[in-house]
Amino acid sequence: MKSFISSKAARFACAAGVGLAGILAVAAEEHHGPQQPWSKYTVHDMSRPVPPVVTPGTVSTPEKPGTAPSDAIVLFDGKDLSAWQSSGGGDPTFKVVDGAALSYGPKNLETKEKFGDVQVHLEWAEPVPAQGDSQGRGNSGVFLMGLFEVQVLDNFKNPTYPDGQCSAVYGQYPPQVNACRPPGEWQTYDIVFHTPRYAEGKLVEPANVTVLHNGVLTQDHQRIEGPTGHMIVAKQPPSSFPAKGPLGLQFHGNPVRYRNIWVRPLEALDRQQHTGEVAAATEKPADSK
Q1: CATH match for 73-275 among 2.60.40.2250, 2.40.50.140, 2.60.120.560, 1.10.10.10
Q2: How many CB atoms lie within 10 A of CB 72?
């Protein structure tokens, strides 16, 4: 009887082992599916690099600016303009007043560091009381690579030409909607910008931009036809651009205030997502010193 029980137990254990092996084989197959033709990885490939950890920032309130994500480059936190210079070089003419960068001339403001593909966050408030009309009310602008302007303007109950109103790609594409808050209230831009692509000195893909104004989509992966300007038809340069350029803020004669400006360069993250080339770590482990 004892040998019969032992034999039965052995057969049960063997069957269980075969079943477990089958489960593990199925699990392994699930994690190593068919080959993706667009990458070197298989579907659900566990050897694929894990995305880096980023701690999100906090949301701004009217009284207090939020904080940036852990991998962001903070360009202005309300303290000083040490990351900036006047356009072309030299000390900024913009002034820091009550934690905000005040648009003050005669020169535009630009970052010392240059950026290519980038996520940009900034906040601004139009002057009160509102003065002037059309392009003369709260005019400024955000320049990507120092060349492509996303317009800043007080268009709260203030009509102007559509391709020059707030969140337009200036002189090219109006925003999809007008999402302006009243003057004096803090407003936000969240911008994703991709530089033009050239190969052998020829344009293969123009620059494009996505803009959320106060959380509302106003430019959706919008093609940019070339450097922006007043009363010009934009043209793509015949030869290649520099790979990177400064982020700029325009002085246009109006005291627009800016706060909470940060950027996230995107090239390394894009490479990792598509090729597996690991991007630099963005956050230290909890036990690191």
Answers
A1: 2.60.120.560
A2: 19
DSSP 208-233: EEEEEETTEEEEEEEE--SS--TT--
DSSP secondary structure letter of residue 238: S
Residue found under tokens 């630009």: 110
* pLDDT of 241: 79
Q: Provide the token pair at 38.
A: 């667009």
Q: CA 216 from chain center: how many Å? A: 15
pTM, full prediction: 0.85
pLDDT tens figures, 178-200: 999 999 999 999 999 999 999 88
Using an 8 Å Cβ cutoff, are 110 and 85 in contact?
Answer: yes
129: phi then psi, degrees, rounded to nearest 5: -70, 155
